[in-house]
Amino acid sequence: MLKAMIYLARTMALIGGAVLTALVILTCISVMGRELNALGNASGWAAVLQPIGNFARSIGIGPINGDFEVVEAGVAFAIFAFLPVAQLYSSHATVDVFTSFLSRKANMIIMACWELVFCIIILLITARLFAGFEGKLSNGETSLMLQFPIWWAYLASFVAAIAASVVAVYVAIARWAELATGRQWLPGAEGAER
Q: What string of H, E and C letters represents the secondary structure of the chain?
């Protein structure tokens, strides 16, 4: 079961990373196009570059219309796509100023309780995403510039949230199993020393 969770979490993280990379490239191209387009309207010392801006505009180089709508939808998906790997490897930010003096057992109980709370919250968010998806699907709302159906973004985020929910349920159960048995059920945390 752990191998399946690792595979799911890493696959979602890779997909989320690919989407985020594409969004960064899209944003860079749009910003460069906007700046090249602005050169066509340059005055003063920048007027020397005005022919470059005019040429860029004449061949269709400019800002990408609706780029912010794609970025908004894509980032929402990417956030949910990264949740499973962060959950599985205990990579969420923690503040242990008040718990560092407690025993290992006490910290394990606190961790198991927080995993359960996080699981409930992820399940609630997933349910609300589904309700939002149904609402946007039924009312036919579209984005302002690109006119793509808003439900597409909700559906993509909902699918990623399902993966996050599956991993969150597994992690919550595994934390309580670790507490009960004393065996390690989850992979070790990556990153900073615990």
A: CHHHHHHHHHHHHHHHHHHHHHHHHHHHHHHHHHHHHHHCCCCHHHHHHHHHHHHHHHCCCCCCCCHHHHHHHHHHHHHHHHHHHHHHCCCCCCCCCCCCCCCHHHHHHHHHHHHHHHHHHHHHHHHHHHHHHHHHHHHCCECCCCCCEHHHHHHHHHHHHHHHHHHHHHHHHHHHHHHHHCCCCCCCCCCCCC
Distance separating alpha carbons of residues 43 and 28, to the nearest angstrom:
24
90-108 confidence digits (pLDDT tens): 888 777 788 888 898 998 9
Are 164 and 84 spatial neighbours (Cβ–Cβ below 8 Å)?
yes
Q: What is the pLDDT of residues 130-186, one digit of tens each?
A: 999 999 999 999 999 999 999 999 999 999 999 999 999 999 999 999 999 988 888
